[in-house]
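User: tokens in, sequence out, please.
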């Protein structure tokens, strides 16, 4: 199973096992990772699942779609070039070791 690493704003790292086909958001919620709210449940309607993809993983994860980028405008924390909505990142074996950084706030 791929492992996903969540890094808190304070630098704490939480490594969890993910299932292929789940989103990074679902993986966080299933494992009790603090810092992902996901109010809309993955419908790309809330921007409370915002993460910063680690520099080493941006090409593997890819860029946000135009719709996703539009929703990121509503994110509570600063939007950066590597910002993504974690509900829009699907876990695959290629993302084993994916590291995402959590923003200071989601709401
Ligand atoms: S969970 Fe709402 S946009 Fe991702």
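Assistant: Sequence out:
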């Amino acid at each position: 199973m791929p492992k996903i690493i969540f890094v808190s704003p304070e630098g704490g790292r939480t490594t969890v096992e993910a299932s292929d086909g789940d989103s990074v958001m679902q993986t966080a919620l299933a494992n009790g990772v603090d810092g992902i709210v996901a109010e809309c449940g993955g419908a790309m309607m809330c921007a409370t699942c915002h993460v910063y993809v680690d520099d080493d993983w941006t090409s593997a994860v890819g860029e946000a779609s135009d719709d996703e980028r539009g929703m990121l405008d509503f994110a509570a924390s600063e939007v950066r070039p590597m910002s993504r909505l974690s509900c829009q990142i699907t876990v695959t074996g290629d993302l084993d070791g994916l590291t995402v950084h959590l923003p200071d706030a989601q709401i």
